[in-house]
Amino acid sequence: MENFCKQEADETRLGKDAALMKPENDGHVFKFYYEPKTYVLTCKTSMTVLEALLKNSSFKQFYDKNEQKYVVIRREETPRGAVTSDFPCCLINENEVLDITFIKTDKNSSTTNQTTITQSLMSNPHNFVTFNIKTKGGKGIKKLMKIKELKRQEVEYVCVYAIKGEKLSKALKRDGRFVIYNKRCALSDQDNKDITNMSNTVDHLHGKHFQVIVLDNQPPSQNSSQEIDPVKNEPCDVSENPNSTQSENVGAVSTQEQIRPLKEERSNVTQIQVQKIPGTEEILNLLRDQFKGLLEKLKEREGLRNPAEVQRFYRQEYDKSAQSFTEIKRVKQLMKLSDSVCKIKVEGSERGTGFLLFDRFILTNAHVVGFINPMTQKLANSITAVFEDLDTEERMDTEERMDTEERTPVEKRIPEKKRIPEKRIPVELPVNKTLVSYYYGKNDMGLHLDFALLELSSEAKLPDCPELLSSYSATPSRGGICIVGHPGCGIKRMDPCFIIPKEDVHSSADRHVAENKDCIHVITQQCLKEKLKVQASQISYDSCFFHGSSGSPVFDEFCHLIGVHTGGYVYEGAGGKMRSMMEYAFPMLPILVCIITQCRQSGRSDVIQHFESQKNTKYVLCLANKQNQVI
Fold first, then answer.
1. Which of 542, 567, 356, 367 is nearest to 451 (CA)?
2. Exposure of 466 by Cβ count < 10 A (0-12 exposed, 13-18 middle, 19+ buried)?
3. Bias category Polar residues: which stretches (predicted)?
4. Biggest distance spanned by C-alpha atoms of the chain
5. pLDDT digits over 169-217, tens only?
């Protein structure tokens, strides 16, 4: 990796300040796709999506031609939920591509909404939450959506927006697409099966996926609070108080439940036992190893001097999106996905990181693999991918546990000193000389790309690990992310951090330059301008991953694969210590589109067929088809 210059930023604080200070007349940019073309439009953040679309003359023509039809507006990010016509524009990501289709519906099923939310509330995304609901209900629900044609158009989810602090039932009434239900309904989380009643507030639902289910075990006293009734368009204001909804929830509980005998409560408490979660020793050791370094980096970045200031900082920052990575479920998901991450060796020397994209194909950066023959598209050097044999480690642990006849493997506790990383035996797999797909530089669309898709040789035996393509999703504009790789070509590590929103990159860079004038006066002249030229096509963040981590997968806070860690801007600070301004990744979407385009040209039908078999790559194939038509 070349020497770069890097920026530090407090993503969430700056993001919120920028959203609050941004003039209302600033242009918010997003796109819409109506086969076979993509159109760009600008709008005010206080507009609804339909208002913004109708400002575009091309869309207005399409809309007028289909005035008897219902417009389906689907988001780019998986699961590509369909939004309502009154969906706030402030919730649409910058440069997000909305997919537009028109479908025939019954006259009685029209759901075109006119927003009653005040303009001040509409212009700030921090006033809202969004979540996705399946268009197919659970057991016992024959019809859920008013527009039954949505399912025929393969619309699996609808995206619902809600105002923070309001009840779930009110949000669904405003949405207007759900059938009026007399049954007691609730939402079931598709990840952990948690149940959310209609009387609950919506604040904890952001970014989650649900299915509507019928509750069989609720008392009649809660019937009215679980029904979805016709909506009355009442003006909503930012002053709505979440605490009022909490008090109403308490009132929904029957009196008999409130006066439950004290003995029964005590007996329930005594049954709760704290137990150690099995199989979490490795996660605990990883977190302990990273704690000291992360704490020092935090103190340096935020100017914190003592433990009391650190505690105050975390009290202020705890509610931000990075808390997703503190959930055991998320950490376990990342641990499983990290099995697919490998080291890349060039001529026997460790050069970077890669990961199993699918089947026998490894994705990494183009600058990691080094020189290629431009005529034959073959690697100039021999390359191997080094995975960790997890099965070997597990087998060795089991053999050590079975060293006595009196105890079972679970009962025989292994001393901590025996559980060492060296038990992970590396498996070095050779890579074919011929590249499957490769791009380094700016493409025809003006986007910077730096990737190489390698194919393992036919005799290589892969360890059992997940294919990360199945976890692919569109890139969010902000929020928490996690990088998994081999920084310094050392042991595998993970680094949770924040996306720096594009509108904050300039101010964050200026702030870092102002605070470090003596250290970075050289690089600011040479590469700050160059950095800003390519920022439109990259995901920016502040990470501790430097050399050796190029090619690492980048996951969002829901463990979706969103990008490839590529580089950053680092410099030598006081005392020879490496400092940083900003790290970046290239998003997966243009990489996957380029892979499909090149494989079609080279006749790699096996690669194309794999993409066509994936549910989450339909939009990728659509963009690739469009580029082929242009070519």
1. 367
2. middle
3. 218-227, 240-253
4. 82
5. 999 999 989 886 656 889 999 888 889 999 999 999 998 999 999 887 5
CA-CA distances (angstroms) from residue 302 to 312, 452, 532, 543?
A: 12, 37, 24, 14
Q: Give the closest residue to 242 by CA, choosing from 130, 124, 161, 163.
A: 163
**Which of these CATH numbers, 3.40.190.10, 3.20.20.70, 3.10.20.90, 3.90.550.10, describes 25-230+243-249?**
3.10.20.90
Rounded to whole angstroms, the Cα distance separating 89 from 498 reads: 23
User: How many other C-beta atoms can be found within 10 angstroms of the C-beta atom of residue 258?
Assistant: 8
Which tokens go with 577?
């210590």
- For 316, which DSSP code? H
By the 8 A CB rule, do 4 and 580 touch?
no
Give me 423's structure tokens. 């038990």
User: Is the pLDDT score of 515 beyond 70?
Assistant: no
Closest residue by Cα to residue 26 from 124, 126, 162: 124
Cβ-based neighbour number of residue 608 at 10 Å = 16
With a cut of 50, say whether residue 124 has pLDDT above it. yes
Beta strands in 200-255 (DSSP E): 209-214
Q: Which amino acid is at 454?
A: L
In the block, which residue shows the tokens 């898709």? 453
Rounded mean pLDDT, 235-253: 40
The answer to whether the Cα torsion of 538, 592, 432, 545 is positive or negative is positive
Q: 483 pairs with which residues across the strands?
A: 495, 554
Please provide residue 520's backbone torsions phi and psi, each rounded to the nearest 5 degrees.
-120, 25
- Which helix (H) or strand (E) segment holds residue 531: the answer is helix 521-534
Residue 13 banded pLDDT, cuts 50, 70, 90: very low
Half-sphere exposure of 254 (CA within 13 A, CB side): 10
The answer to whether the CB of 69 falls within 8 A of the CB of 608 is: no
In the Cβ-directed half-sphere of 545, how many Cα atoms lie within 13 Å?
34
Provide the whole-model pTM: 0.52
Nearest to 245 by CA among 195, 204, 187, 189: 204
CB 510 within 8 A of CB 472: no
Q: Where are the domains of the chain?
A: 25-230+243-249, 590-630
End-to-end CA distance of the chain: 33
Give the per-residue SS3 of 601-622: HHCCHHHHHHHHHCHHHHHHHH
